[in-house]
Amino acid sequence: MQTLDQERTSAPPKQIEDLSLLGEVSHRTAGVSRLEMCIQCGCCGGSCPSEADMDHTPRMLFAMLRAGMRHAALMSNTPWICVSCYHCVVRCPQNVHIADVMYTLKSMAIEAKLYQDSTAPDFSQTFVDMVEEFGRSFELGLATRHYLKHFPLRLPNMAPMGIGMLSKQRMNITPTRIKGIAQLKAVLKRAKEVEAAS
Amino acid sequence: MTQHGGTSPKLALSESKGEERIGVYVCHCGTNIAGVVDVQEVAEWAAAQLEHRGVVIGREYKFMCSSLGQELIEKDIKELELTRVVVAACSPHLHEHTFRTACKNAGLNPYLCELVSIREQVSWVHTDKAAATAKAKAVVSGGVERVIRHAPLEPLRVPIHPDTLVVGGGIAGIQSALEIADAGYHVYLVEREPSIGGHMAQFDKTFPTLDCSACILTPKMVQVGTHPNVTLLTWSEVEKVDGFVGNFTVTVRKKARKVIEDLCTGCGICQEKCPKKVIDDVYEAGLGYRKAVYTPFPQAVPKYPVMDVENCTYFEKGTCKACEKFCPTNAIDFKQQDEILTLQVGNIVLATGYDLFDARRVTNYGYGRLPNVFTSLEFERLSNAAGPTNGNIVLRDGKTTPKAVGIVHCVGSRDRNFNNYCSVICCMQGLKFAHLVHERTGAIVYNFYIDMRTAYKAYDEFYQRVLEEGTLFVRGKVAEITDVPRRPDEDGHLIVQVEDTLAGKQRRIPVDMVILSTGLQPRYDAKETAKRFGLSCSSDGWFIEKHPKLDPISTMTEGIYIAGCVQGPKDIPSSVAQGAAAAARVLGKIQQKEISIEPVRASVNQDQCSGCRICNNLCPYNAISFDEDRGVSLVNAALCQGCGTCVAACPAGAISGTAFSNDQILSQIEGLLLLNIDEPVTA
Amino acid sequence: MNKYILYPGCSMESSARAYYDSLKAITDIIGLNLQEIEDWNCCGATEYLGIKLTPAYALISRNLALAAQQADGTRTVVAPCSACYLNLAKADYYMQEQPVLGQHVNEALAAGGLSYKPGSLDIRHLLDVLVYDVGLDTIKSKVVRPLTGLRVAPYLGCMVPRPDYEHRWSDYEYPVELDRLLNALGADVIEFPLKTECCGGHMTQISPDTAFELIRRLVSAADEHQADLMATLCPMCQMNLDAYQSETNKFFHTSYRMPVIFFTQLMGLAFGLEAKDLGFGLELVSARNALAKIGIEHPAEIPTGTARPKKDGSLPMPAPLPRRNMHTEKGKVVK
Fold it and tell me: Is the pLDDT of residue B680 over 80?
C-alpha cells in the first residue's frame, strides 16, 4: 500500500496546489455532486466495505481534491476499489454523491493515464469494448481475456467454476449482437464527440 | 449650511410646487449603501426631478440613524416647514421607529414619515452601480408618491391585564413563572404532563459542574407549586387563544385526573395497589414501568397522581377499582370529567420545550434492534439513582456491567438525512456520559465525534477533565453499529464501525454498550401550537424569534414571548436565562399598565363585504371574525398587525388598510415606474 | 392484467438464466404482463460510468428511448437486475437533476434517430412491483405449497435499496419488502443483519481478495443464522456468492455450502411449479438439501413482541419504528 510520504516523492511538486481540481471533479460528475459540501466527518470511510484495500479513505481523497493534489488523488487506488455499494451515499450527512465522484475520478485517471495497477481500468475498458461491439456484455470473452491477462496463476483455480458455468449454460459460448448495433454505434460516437466538446 | 461632525451634508434645495413640502433623506449607511449606490446623485435627482411633486429638499448623509442624522431631519422639519419625510435607508424593520420618533420630536405626525429600503432591496442585492442608483431613484420616487397620500394617525391605546400565562413547566417555564410571581403578579402555569419539571427532572447530573439535577431543580418546583401568585395547572392543555396583547382570552382543558385534588393527600397507596404495570415512555424514556394510576416521580409537583384511562383495568374491563378501595381519603373519582377553564391574561410565555430525536430512524445505528444501544434519555434514567436500575449502569439484561462503552455524537443532528442543525447540547452531554460511565463502571469509554463543541463558561475545562480521566476520543461520524462479528475478538460484542479520521483508517471497535447522544427536535405538535398562538415556525420547526440576535425571546406577535428550547436547542443555563428574560419583558409590559399599539390596521367596508369569508382563515393573527347576524367579516383592530394579506385577498375590494390603502399602494407603484416625472431616468 | 415494460439485462440471458426462467414461469399466475423492450442493449453495468460520462449515459438512455417509444399506455419499466435497475433509474434521475446532461445525451441519441424526455418513465425493480402493485395478498393467495420450515436468509445487496432516488423502499439499510414477500410464501424468514451488505461487485474480477472477504462475511453470517439458503434478487450477487463460494472457501480454508437462489424461484416452488421449470440445478452450490426440507418440518412460530414486564429483570426494548412507504392492504405504493 502506498503512503502519503511515498506520494510526496513521486508527485511532481508543481502540481501539489491545483485549486481548480475540486471544481473540475464536481463539474464532470453526473448530477449535482455537492462535493464542496464535505465536512470531513468520515462516515464514508467508516461505511466502506472495502476500505482495508484502499490507499485513502474516500474522505481523505476528498481532502486531497480540495488541497489540489491532482497527481496523488488520481494515482489513488481508492476509486478502483469502490464496490458501488452506496452505503456511504445514503449515510453521508451532506448528501455528497460519493459513488458518482468515484466514477468521475476513474475516468479522469484513465484520461491522465494515472493508475498504479491496470487491472481495474483494463477490466472496465474490455467490458466497454465488448458492449460497444455487440451491444450486449459477453461474460465468457470478458472473463477469459481478463483473467488470462491479470490473474494467469489463478486460472487453474477458477477453471472448475468456469466449467461449471459453461456446463450449466450460464455463460454463452458466443456473444449476442443486437439488431440496432449500427444505431448504437452512431449514438456512442456522437456521445463521445459531445463529451469532448463540453 | 450647518456643519455636522466633519461631514458637510449636501443640499439641493428647490421651491416646492405641490401642496406638500417633502424632505428626502438618503443614507450612505457607511459603505453599505454608498458603496454601490451613488447617494449624492439620488439626493440631487430627488430634489430636482421630484420638485413638482413637492420635494423641497434632498440630502444625503453618512449615517442617517445617528443622532446627528436625526437632528438634521428635525431641523429641516422646523426650518423648512416640511409636511412629509422620506428616508431612503435600511429596512423599516430596523429604523422605522427611529425616524418616526425624530419626526414626532420635531412636531410632525410620525406616520407622515416613510422609510424606503435601498439597502436590503438595492445595494445588497446589486453589483451594477449605475443600475442600482437608477433603482434607488425609483424606490425614492415611489416613497414620495406614497407619503403624499399618508394621513396622520394616532396610536391605539390598550390596557394590559396584569396576569400572565406560562405554557410549559420545564426549567424555562418555571424560571419565567417564578420571576413574574416574585414581582407580585399572578401567573397561570400550564403543563400537559402530570408534573412540572420537564426534561431536567429526568436527568441525573448536569454539565459542566455535575450538580445533581434533582437537587437544583426540585426546590424551584416546590417554590412554584406553593407560590401564592402561581396557579399551577398540570395535566392541562391550552386549547384556544383569542384576543391580543394585554387582553388574551385563553381556553384551557384541565384533563380529568380521576383524582379529587382537594381530598388527595399524595400518600401513594393507590399506585402501590394498582395492579397494572405500563411501560413509562415519558418520564422513564421507555426504560421503566409505572402504574396505571401514577405520579411520574417521587418529587412530582403537584403530588396528586393521575389515572391513565387508556391502560386502567377498570376502564378496559369494567372491574378492579383497587385504587378506590384502598384510598384512605376517598379521593378516587372514576366519573370525573375534563374541565374547561377560561383565563384572562395580558401576556403569554411559551416554553414548550423539545422532543428527543427518534433514534430508530438511523437504522444503521441499530437502536430498537440491538438491545444494548441506548438513547441519551435512556442513559439519563439508567444513571439516575431514582431510575429503573437505581443508578446502576448496566446492559439491557438489567444486570451486566459494561466493560467498554461507545458514546456516539451527532445522532440525528448535523445530518441532511435527518436534522440539519447542531443540537448544541450533545457534545457536552456525551462528555458528561463519559465521565459518569468512567466513574461508576471503570469501563473503557470511547467518544465518537465530528467536531467537539464546548463553547461557554467552564465547558472546555470539562472536556479537559474527561480527557484526563482517560476517555478515548475518535474523530469520525460513526458509520454503523453491528452485532455481526468479523473477527473472534468481536464475538458477543457490539462493534462500532467508524473512520478514525485523524488516523485515516477505518476502525471496528468492540464495545458492550453504545449510548447515542441523541439530538433535540421540535415538539411533534409544534406546528399546531404555533398556529394556536399565531406564531410561525422555521423550516426546522423551531419557533421564530422577533430578531435572532437582538430580540431572541420576543415573537412577531406582541405580548407572546418564547423561552427555552421551543426557540431552538439550548442547554439549561441558556434556557433559564431566556425564561428570566421573557419574564422581564412581561413585567415591563405589565408595569406600563396600558400600551400603545401600531395604528396600521385593516378595516372592512361593511357595505362592500359580501360575507364570502375568504379573509377569515387567511389572517395569520386570527384577527378576523365573522358576524353571523349581519353576514359580514370584522377585523379586530387590536389583534390586526397590518400585514395586508386580507386586503389583497378580498375579492370585493372591501378591505383596506390604514397606511396600506389601494390608493397609497397604487401611487407607490406609479412612483416606482416613474410615471410621475416627464423624463424617465436611464440606467 | 398489469402491463409493464421489461428490461431484462444481459445476465438474465446467461449467468442468471434461473432468474429469467422462474420469472417467466410465474408471471401468468400472478397476472403480470411483461413486454420486453425490443432490441435493448447492455446498460454498461458499473463499468462504463467509470470510463466516459456522456457515452455511459447515452448507452443507458438508448434503452429508455426505446422503452418510451414502446410504452403504449404504461410508463413503468421493470428491471429484475439490480445494476440495470440502478443504471436506468440513475440516468433518468440525473438527467432531471442536471438538465445539461439530458441535453448532451439527447444530442447523442439524435444520431440514432432517438430521443428521451427525462422523467417520462417510472423505473422500478421487480420486487417493488411484486410487493406494491401485485400485492402480498395476491401472492399469498396463489401459494399452494407453503415453504414451511425452509429457513431463508433474505439478501438484497446494494443497488436495489440504495441510493433509492425515488424513495420507493422502506429503508436503505434494513428494507423489509423481501422479508415480507418470503413470509407470504410461508418461508421461515431469518432476520438477516447483512441483507444489504455488498457481495463484492466487480471485485471478483479486479481484486479477488477484496471480493472473497466480502463473500465470506455474507456466507458465514447466513451460516451462523442457520439458513438453508439465501434468497436474492440480483444476478451479480447470485453469481459472486454462488460461483465464487468455492474459491472463497479455498482462500479462507472454510467449507461453507450455502445455496444462493433467486426469490422468483422460491415463488415458483410455493406456487406449486416443478423445480426443474424454475431453473433449479443451475446453481453451483446445490440447493438439493434445502429443498428436501420443504414440507417435512413443522411450522415454526414467528415470535412476537410483548409489552408485559419481563420476569428476568431485564429492561424493555423500544417499539419498532413504523416504516415509511409500507404498503396498504391493497398493495398500493404510498408516496
Answer: no
Alpha-carbon distance of C2 to C134, in angstroms, equals: 8
Q: Show the cell assigned to B248.
A: 388574551
A176: confidence class by pLDDT, cuts 50, 70, 90: confident
3-state secondary structure of C95: helix
Distances (CA, A) of B257 to B174, B309, C205, C279: 22, 9, 69, 66
| Beta carbons of B504 and A60 less than 8 Å apart | yes
Q: Which of B355, B378, B437, B375 lies closest to B403, judged by CA?
A: B437
Given this model, what pLDDT does residue C301 score?
33
The predicted complex's ipTM stands at: 0.89
| pLDDT above 70 for B227 | yes
Backbone angles phi, psi at B307, to 5 degrees: -105, 130
What residues of B are in the A interface, CB distance below 8 Å?
364, 410, 414-417, 450, 475-480, 497-501, 504-506
How far are the Cα atoms of B157, B347, B596, B662, C5 from residue B599, in angstroms, in the given order? 9, 20, 9, 17, 65
CATH of domain A4-111: 1.10.1060.10
Level-2 CATH architecture, domain B257-337:
2-Layer Sandwich (3.30)
Least CB–CB distance from B501: residue in A42, A47, A95: A42
**A42–B480 CB contact, under 8 Å:** no
CATH code reported for the domain at B156-255+338-353+523-597: 3.50.50.60
> In sequence order, what are the residues at sequence separation of 6 or more whose Cβ sits closer than 8 angstroms to the Cβ of residue A51?
A45, A57, B499, B505, B506
Query: C151 and C92: one domain?
Result: no
Range of the domain at C156: 144-293
CA distance C326 to chain B (A): 15
- Which range has the worst mean pLDDT, B442-456, B565-579, B613-627? B613-627
Q: List all chains that touch chain A, counting a touch as 3 or more CB pairs closer than 8 Å.
A: B, C
Chain C CB within 8 Å of residue B98 CB: no
Does C235 map to a domain? yes
Residues B104-146: pLDDT tens digits?
999 999 999 999 999 999 999 999 999 999 999 999 999 999 9
Residues B529-563 pLDDT 10s: 999 999 999 999 999 999 999 999 999 988 999 99
Distance from CA of A95 to the nearest CA of B (A): 7
Give the CATH number for residue C243.
3.40.50.11810
C-alpha atoms less than 13 angstroms from C-alpha of B649 in its C-beta half-sphere: 15
What is the spatial distance between Cα B531 and Cα B528, in angstroms, rounded to a whole number?
5
User: Which architecture, in CATH terms, is B602-657?
Assistant: 2-Layer Sandwich (3.30)
Q: Which of C93, C125, C157 is the last residue of a domain?
A: C125
Average pLDDT (C116-140) is 97
Compare CB distances from C172 to A90, A128, A165 and report the shortest one's residue.
A90
C92 domain-assigned: yes
Find the farthest-apart pair of alpha carbons in chain B and give their distance in angstroms, rounded. Answer: 95
Q: Which CATH class is domain B356-520?
A: alpha beta
> Does C313 have pLDDT greater than 50?
yes
Chain C contact for B391 (CB, 8 A cutoff): no
List phi, psi (to 5°) of B577: -60, -40
**Radius of gyration in angstroms for the set of CA atoms belonging to chain C, rounded to a whole number:** 20
Q: Do C193 and B486 touch (CB under 8 A)?
A: no
Domain boundaries, chain A: 4-111, 119-197
Instruction: Report the CATH number that the domain containing residue C116 is assigned in CATH.
Output: 1.20.1050.140
Question: Which of B364, B414, B480 faces A93 most closely, judged by CB atoms?
Answer: B414
Q: Which three cell numbers stand for residue C284?
A: 453451483
C108 within 8 A of A190, measured Cβ to Cβ: yes
CB spacing of B363 vs C320 below 8 angstroms: no
**Mean pLDDT value of segment A69-94:** 96
User: Which residue in this structure is represented by grid cell 427532572?
Assistant: B201
Q: What pLDDT, on a 0 to 100 scale, did the predictor assign at position A153?
A: 76
Mean pLDDT of chain C: 89
Is residue C312 assigned to a domain? no
